[in-house]
Structures are given as structure tokens and as C-alpha cells.
Amino acid sequence: MTRPFNFSAGPAALPEEVLQQAASEMLDWHGSGMSVMEMSHRGKEFISIYEHAEADFRELMAVPQNFKILFMQGGGLAENAIVPLNLSRGGAADFVVTGSWSNKSQKEARKYCDVQIAATNEGSQHTSIPAPGSWQLRGDASYVHVCTNETIDGLEFHDLPDLKALGCDAPLVIDFSSHVASRAVDWSRVGLAFGGAQKNLGPAGVTLVVVREDLLGHALAICPSAFNYKTVADSGSMYNTPPTYSIYIAGLTFQWLKRQQEGDASGIAAIEKRNIAKARLLYDAIDNSALYFNPVSQDCRSRMNVPFFLRDASRNEAFLAGAKARELLQLKGHKSVGGMRASLYNAMPLAGVQALVRYLQEFEQQHA
């Protein structure tokens, strides 16, 4: 039976192979007599799951050895507090606001440090990204924060800013929650990356933090021990009970990603190639339509989250009902912006985007 195509922004669709493997191992993981959900996080069975997941992610994303990979809890929203608690030293931090999530980040960080908005696209209603050369960065900033993919507004940094080229020595902090593992990362430009798993990596519950070792050990005294990156790193993400089942599913997803092939490309290179093709197909359909539009500048459109609007908003409900009838699910836009949104995460097959494009064209013909 063909499953419906789930365009949810998160928690999002998982690869069918991953779900099938998890189902087959639900009652008895590898002859252990236990489900992964029943294992001690300190037992040899789960430790092997954890170690394989960490090693696979490091290999998959080419994470250098001087970075620690942490499996934490609290999601991206909690990291908005945990990052300044660990990195700000109570001093200055600069933020580039490009949409809803980076705006939430700077508001939360104000509780712990001196925040400056180095650049914002508020004037364009979050439809473009300010050129890095225009950012007003402070010499004493402890870090610079950007959200490299805005899930709600549909903007993406296709290239990470080179802070050194801008004369800034502060580490770059990236929130890559909604496009992690959809493309390669230039780690030479990054000090810390964080993201909730529930878009591209697995179910909700685990938060991935990749942090350069020299940034550890500077947490504020008020930082809870379970959120102190050095404490978490020193204990191998086992300071407190980690979200074991979410880590297990993330590990299966990493293995699935490593198996991907697209022409002569494999792994992340293959999935990036596929994501580019999926996004191009949908954006072309929107741009060539008289009924739909996407307001984001073409040079920074997200490959993962594609918001679009009907020029006649009175037809929104009819559009969503027709989509549901064709098993195209979760296309309603975020409540803060309205319209529609199709999330094209790694697990979304090309066939799902093709089905959505056919429906877009059919609905437009019916309502011309």
C-alpha cells in the first residue's frame, strides 16, 4: 500500500525503510530480548546504538575531530537559552534576524547577555537575507547567531557567512534545525551548530549539538548542569538519561542517509542533489502559475520549506480539502503567516513533489 505524502514541517515524515526496520525490532532488538525503549542507557546494548549513531553522523557530515557531537533534549527553543548560557560569558552576542526563528532566538538570549541585532530583513517582510558585508558586527561579541534555514518564512543561507573575511573573530553559531543533513556543512566557518531532530533526523525528543572543543568550559554559573556543554561532552551525552529511542531512530536515519545514491553521488552529496531537484520542480510550478506565488527572493529560497500563497485566499480551504482527498497532507501554512507550506525534507520522495505539482496544476485549471 502506498503511504500518503506528508508535507509536515515537523515532526515530519521519516524514511519508510527506517520505520519498517524500527517496527521489526520493536519487541526484540538484535536478540537482546528488549525493545530499545526498555534498555538501560548505560547498558552495553544501548551504548552500542549510541556509539554507532555518533560515528555515523560524524562520517556522514564530515565533522572534524575537534568538534564534539552532543545528543541533548529541549529542542531548538531550549538551545536559544542554552547557547548564551554556555558561550556568552555574560557579555555581548550579535544576531542576524531573518525570520521567526532567529527572532525568537535573540529574544530568549536577552535574558543572559547583551544582544545586538547586527542585521535584519524585517523591512522586506522576511523575504531576503541581508548581505553579510552589511552586518554591523561588534569586536567584543562572544558569538554571532544565524538561523541558516527559516522553517516558517522559507529562507535559507545557501552559503555560510565567512566571519573572518568580515574581520570578525567571534565563532558563528548556526541553528540548522530544518535543513541539517540536507547538504554539506563548511565546518571551518562554524563554532557551534544545533538542531532539533524532528525535521530531517528522526522523531521529536533529541536535539543535536555540534560544538568546537575550544568553546567548552565557559558556561555561566547559573547554567544547569544538564545543559552545560562541557558536562554533557565529558559524560558522552549520558550525564542524565538521554532520549534513547529518539537517538536510536536518528541512528537508523543516519544509516539510511549513508545508503543513498544519486548518479555518481552518495550519502549527503546524493541527498543534496535530490533536494535541489525537488525544490526546483515545486518552485518552477509556483513561478509559472497565475494562481500561486512565493514572495521569497530567488537567491535565498529554502529547499526544505516552501511557503506559497493563493492569490485568492478565499479558495484556501477548497485547496486544502482537495489536497487531503489526494493524500497530500499537512500543507496548511504556519498560523503566523497563513497560506500554504510544503516541507520537502530528505524523506520526501520526488514522487511526492510530482504529485503535489500535478494537484497544483489541476486545481488552477479548475479555478481559472
Question: Quick gist of this model?
Answer:
The protein has two domains: 17-257, Aspartate Aminotransferase, domain 2; 261-366, Alpha-Beta Complex (Aspartate Aminotransferase, domain 1), CATH 3.90.1150. Helix content is 32%, strand content 18%.
Molecular structure report:
The chain is of the alpha/beta class. The chain folds into two domains: 17-257, 3-Layer(aba) Sandwich (Aspartate Aminotransferase, domain 2); 261-366, Aspartate Aminotransferase, domain 1. The protein contains nine helices and 16 strands. β3, α4 (100-109) and β4 form a beta-alpha-beta unit. It is globular. The model has no long low-confidence stretch (mean pLDDT 96).
Can you lay out the helices and strands and say which pair or pack?
Layout: E1 5-6, H1 16-24, H2 44-60, E2 67-72, H3 75-87, E3 92-97, H4 100-109, E4 114-120, E5 141-147, E6 149-150, E7 155-156, E8 172-175, E9 192-196, E10 207-212, H5 229-234, H6 244-259, E11 261-262, E12 265-266, H7 267-287, E13 292-293, E14 305-310, H8 316-325, E15 328-329, E16 340-343, H9 350-366
Parallel strand pairs: 1-15, 3-4, 3-5, 5-8, 8-9
Antiparallel strand pairs: 2-10, 6-7, 9-10, 11-12, 13-14, 14-16
Helix pairs in contact: 1-6, 2-6, 3-4, 7-9
Keywords:
about 375 residues; alpha/beta; Aspartate Aminotransferase, domain 2; Aspartate Aminotransferase, domain 1; 2 domains; 9 helices; 16 strands; about 30% helix; globular
